[in-house]
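Example 3.2
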Amino acid sequence: MSAAFATFGLAPAMRAGGVLANGDFQIHRDFVDFIVDGRPLLFQLSDLDAVSPLASDVPPAIFTAQVRSLLGETDAPLPGGRYVIYGCPECEDLACGAVTAVIERDGDDFIWRDFAWQTEEAVDLQMNGYHGIGPFRFHGADYRAALDALLQGAGPEGARRRVLLIGARVAVLAKLAAALRTIGIGADITHGVVDVPADELRGYGAVAFGRAVSQEERAAVRHSFAHAGVDVAYVDGLAPIIPLLVAQIEHALDRSPVDQRRLTRLVAADGEAGVEVTSPCRVRLTAYRLDRLYRTHAHEVFDGVLEAGRHRIALDAKAVRGESFVVARTSGSVLVEAMAR
């Protein structure tokens, strides 16, 4: 089969979880994405809320089986030599829909072809095929090397989905920890980490500070992690608003390469939000504010598909008056900004 050679790689990616303005929850998923010709394959398909089969929260034996399947060492799981490339982030049911493709060997090379959206055993390429995507021919040595590296680690590298919460308002921390656990992120509450064993500190991917934590306390925590040789992301909580704090933590946990993210910029000032995306996708903007009685108000201020590039979006003046914040969300990333005055 003739097909132009494409480069193949792998990179950490995230399906952003969160607490939405309507009270719904979205599960956090870490996974390994396929990088084709230097760009996430997921971005080339459509604005799709999906994850690859190489997810960090599956048991090691299942993860290994998925990798060996992509290497052609086992039979294809679907008729016609088809493999699931991306599936539902909430479950593994094909009925929810999945992107599938035929993976075959041609000499030493691997070819991915006939991409389609599939919801049952049979697939109609004419009706549900991703026309214009692929076929991709990958050099066998590069393809095997990338997937073999995953087998050596028995899973994605660097997925630490625990957060350490430090603050003075116990009730807020308890609610935040509960929200994080609901979306699949572990959370612990503490007043400090002095004399905590390094092995325990290595389990955290981020540390979130409440606004009342002093600079001296923050410095002591940073010193403890640095002394243990643990690199974590630090989050300075903007306000005691649970969905806002969850969004800040989601952003901090994002380990995907910056140049391969879909949502790359958010500014909020003068009643407008500036957003930049690298490929067409659905973007949701939510404004949160505290009134003079410190009550929380949430407003969905934008929900639509944006083309690649920079966009300026006017915000409802009532939604961003006083102390307010804007959260921009796509399926794979989250950005948070305080409204500048």
